[in-house]
Design brief:
single chain, Jelly Rolls, eight-stranded mixed sheet, seven-stranded antiparallel sheet, 3 helices
């Protein structure tokens, strides 16, 4: 596969891939909660409160559509990528100290056999949940600051200070933190690995993303400024389908629970 020149410049946006936002019909007002997919009617392609993320406008976009899950009756987001790459994003304004837990569920249909998230030429994933953070850009090395400035010149938008990506990965075990091959400001945390026994079924996750961020970056996170999802196969050219359920950012429970554990998931 050919290299992605634009991606090499804008890598700070997601896990090794550049992202620019498509124009939206209304102002992008940050929210204190993630807009639920289940609050939409089945059939729409863009959930309310979300925006499209374009991976280089020469790329074929991933197809997203809201559908009704046959088992639960809930409206969920269906992603279908055939040699395609794009995502969805919502702006947030959340204090991590007050709401340090992210909970979500997804159903991954299969693996992307040729994907390798440590190789910039085969970085694809059936499922990604991305958290975008603000921070002090002046504290970053010159290389990282130049990358962010270049991205802003190209897109007209500030790139996140840091991005934490929860990912389903082919080879690395659950719990592995993977660095981006392009920037120190993107870290991938493996929450699904290989042909898991629940591949093809709903899998629920609950993570203390503040603890995960500290583990990945070595210091506490700044304000949570966005959330995104992405299913992509533009490098490998494969076909993959994934379903995403609602995403919640919330306070930690007072009693010992799944949010305080490194990994928490259950089939649903």
């Amino acid at each position: 596969m050919k290299a992605r020149p634009l991606c090499l410049l804008l890598a700070a946006a997601t896990a090794g891939c550049a992202v620019t936002e498509a124009p939206a019909p209304q102002p992008d007002v940050p929210s204190t909660r993630v807009a639920a997919f289940s609050a939409n009617a089945a059939g729409a392609s863009l959930p309310k409160g979300w925006r499209t993320l374009i991976i280089n406008r020469t790329k074929k976009p991933t197809e997203y559509r809201l559908v009704r899950d046959k088992a639960t009756g809930d409206v969920v987001l269906h992603a279908r990528a055939a040699a395609a790459a794009s995502g969805l994003r919502q702006s947030l304004a959340i204090d991590p100290d007050k709401a340090p837990v992210v909970a979500w569920r997804w159903r991954v249909s299969d693996l992307i056999i040729a994907a390798d998230n440590q190789d910039r030429y085969s970085e694809d994933a059936p499922a990604r949940l991305m958290l975008f953070f603000d921070g002090d850009r002046s504290s970053l090395p010159l290389k990282e600051r130049m990358l962010m400035e270049t991205a802003k010149l190209v897109t007209g938008q500030d790139m996140p200070y840091a991005t934490l990506v929860y990912i389903w990965e082919n080879r690395f075990p659950v719990g592995t933190v993977l660095p981006s091959s392009l920037t120190s400001q993107v870290k991938l945390l493996v929450v699904g690995s290989g042909a898991d026994a629940r591949l093809g079924t709903w899998k629920r996750f609950e993570r203390n993303y503040v603890e995960d961020y500290v583990r990945a970056f070595g210091h506490p996170p700044g304000r949570l400024i966005g959330v995104g999802i992405m299913t992509d196969t533009d490098n490998t050219g494969e076909l993959i389908e994934t379903y995403y359920g609602d995403i919640e950012i919330r306070a930690a429970r007072r009693t010992a629970d799944a949010a305080s554990r490194p990994i928490a998931d259950a089939a649903r």
